[in-house]
Amino acid sequence: MKKFYFLLWLFWAVRVVLCSVISASVLSGLITSVLYVKKGMPGLESEVLSALGELFLFWFLVTLNITVLFALFRSVKYIFNRCYGGYSFKLLSCPKEKTFIEYIGYGDLVKFWRKWFMLLIWLSAAFMIIDFILFDYYNIYVLYGAILLSGYFSFIFIGSRCKGVRIVKC
Fold it and tell me: Is the whole-model pTM more than 0.85?
C-alpha cells in the first residue's frame, strides 16, 4: 500500500505542478504582452526588458494562486481513472451500495472534491503552523510545498476514512 500511495501522490503532484505552472506562465505571459502593447510597444532596451521581466514575475505569482485551484480540481479525476502500483481508487455510486462508477467525470466528483479540498485545507494549515515554528520566513513556495505534502496525507485519509471511496486491485 505504501507504493500505491507514493505513486498516486507522485503522479498527482507532478500533474498539479505542471498544470499550474504552465497555466500561470501562459496567463502571466498574456497579461505582460497586453500591458506591453497598451504602453505602445516601446523598444526592447535593457530597462524595458527588465520591467517586462518584473511584470511577468509579478503576474506569475498572482496567477499561480488561481491556477493551483484549477489544477487541484482537474487532477482529482485522474486519481480515479488510473492504476497505481496494482491498486486504484474507485468511487462508489452510492455509499450504501457496492457498485462502482466506471467512467468518472467531473460531475461525479463535486461532492468528493469538496470533502477532499476541505481536508487539504486543514492539512495545509497544520503544515503552515509547523512551517511558522520551524522557519523565520514564509512565502508562496512554502505554501505550495505544504499543499503538495498535505496531498500525500489526504490520500491516506481518504482511502481509509471516506465511505464513498474504495481501494481495489487492478
Answer: no
